[in-house]
Write a structure and sequence with these properties.
Order of helices and strands: HHHHHHHHHHHHHHHHHH
CATH topology: Growth Hormone, Chain: A
Transmembrane segments: 12-32, 44-62, 74-92, 98-120, 132-154, 160-180, 224-246, 252-270, 282-303, 309-336, 343-366, 372-391
Radius of gyration: 20 Å
CATH architecture: Up-down Bundle
CATH superfamily: MFS general substrate transporter like domains
Number of domains: 1
Membrane topology: Multi-pass membrane protein
Main location: membrane
Shape: globular
GO molecular function, one term: transmembrane transporter activity
Distance between the termini: 31 Å
Helix content: over 70%
Keywords: Membrane, Transmembrane, Transmembrane helix, Transport
Low-confidence stretches: 186-201, 395-403
Number of helices: 18
Strand content: under 5%
């Protein structure tokens, strides 16, 4: 096999799968553990949100460090720190979980940037969207089995099984990660080397790059859509394990498994449909945001309508997740200036992290003041409001030169 499916890239996808396996379990265990200890939705939301909020803060800096030192060197350091974070989960409580989530958030900032930028730089343009889609697909694969495993661990009441699982994941991730390799395309290596030379003035560079969130229309539009959609995704991740208890015959494990399975299936079956030409397609993006709004409504009404509508929301949300991130990331890889591309994509991904964090931090107090159903209606309104951002009255944005 060649291109995005060659052996070096398959190893990177396997590494991605192992790395995110721990989080698929923690996303269920932490809310259940918090509720059992009497924590409020606000507290649970803060703990869940701390992970990607930390990732958001460090993600742009990760882009500059990776440009300067290379993805493999950074990757090996981060995998060691990640192993320490996973060990913390094995012997601490809610307070320790909060610290471990922050530490894991730092690791994820560098891990995901190292792999995604490495894939972008190593693949030719025609294979770029497939490589990004495969990475994203493997980051969701653990979500199929992880929630079921987490519920099984929780129901046994034996947290020693949870500890052994975290240790096993840390060891396997390290073994695969330390043998991974990433080879850059010649022009990508030159661009990275040039950008890395300015690493000494990283602070000024970050301020300049951050201004592009407003000044660059492509980055602004993509970031706004990703931020709002990720807020909805984050609310689902943080509170479905608790909300499912209020739904007749509802199961958080089945919901999360269905959603992850749809993400995986859609990214595999529809990967060739994801635009990879640097053009903006309003109808495609509007349809994706409508899926998010419809999924949120299904989840909200499931408290009275039952599990059928609950699981329908999982299917719709999964399709939206499968399409949105790789489409926007691939689009930006074409239209952003090559000299700033890595850092600006880092800022874009930081917006996705911020959205997921806000899904827990902001929506937790709303759930405390109102209800889970009302909170998910608000999520639907946010998704619908983004239709105005997704629509481009000019029809198609011309591809810009990235010299």
């Amino acid at each position: 096999m060649k291109g995005a499916l060659s052996w070096p890239f398959l190893r990177l996808y396997l590494l991605t799968l192992l790395y995110f396996s721990a989080n698929s379990i923690l996303n269920v265990i932490i809310p259940l553990k918090g509720e059992s200890l009497g924590a409020s939705n606000s507290t649970i939301g803060i703990i869940m949100g701390a992970y990607l909020l930390t990732t958001m803060v460090f993600r742009p800096w990760a882009g500059q460090f990776i440009q300067r030192y290379g993805p493999i060197r950074i990757l090996r350091i981060i995998l060691t720190i990640n192993g320490i974070a996973l060990l913390l989960y094995t012997f601490t409580g809610i307070g320790g979980y909060f610290f471990a989530r922050m530490l894991q958030g730092v690791c994820t900032a560098f891990f995901s940037m190292a792999l995604q930028l490495g894939i972008i730089d190593a693949l030719p343009e025609k294979d770029r969207s497939q490589g990004i889609s495969m990475y994203s697909l493997c980051s969701y694969l653990p979500g199929i089995i992880g929630p079921l495993l987490a519920i099984g661990i929780w129901q046994t009441g034996e947290m020693s099984i949870f500890a052994m699982t975290m240790i096993a994941i840390a060891v396997l991730t390290g073994l695969v990660g330390f043998t991974a390799t990433i080879e850059q395309q010649p022009e990508a290596g030159e661009a990275a080397g040039t950008a890395g030379a300015g690493g000494a003035n990283a602070g000024a560079g970050m301020l300049k790059a951050a201004s592009q969130l407003v000044r660059n229309p492509h980055l602004f539009r993509s970031s706004a859509l990703m931020l709002s959609a990720s807020l909805v995704f984050g609310a689902v991740t943080a509170f479905v394990p608790l909300y499912a208890l209020q739904i007749p015959q509802g199961s958080a494990a089945i919901y999360l498994m269905l959603q992850a399975a749809v993400v995986v299936a859609a990214r595999f079956l529809l990967k060739s449909k994801i635009p990879s030409d640097g053009k903006w397609r309003s109808s495609f993006m509007i349809g994706t945001m409508l899926l998010i709004a419809a999924a949120s409504l299904c989840i909200s009404f499931a408290a009275t309508a039952g599990a059928y509508l609950f699981y329908s929301g999982a299917l719709l949300m999964g399709v939206a997740q499968a399409l949105l991130y790789p489409t926007l990331t691939t689009y930006l890889s074409f239209v952003l200036p090559k000299s700033e591309r890595n850092v600006l994509i880092g800022l874009f991904i930081a917006m996705a992290d911020l959205g997921v964090s806000l899904g827990g931090i902001v929506m937790g107090p709303i759930a405390d003041l109102t209800s889970y159903s009302t909170m998910f209606i608000i999520c639907a309104v946010i998704g619908a409001a983004m239709l105005l951002v997704a629509y481009d009255r000019r029809g198609t944005l011309a591809k810009e030169k990235t010299a």
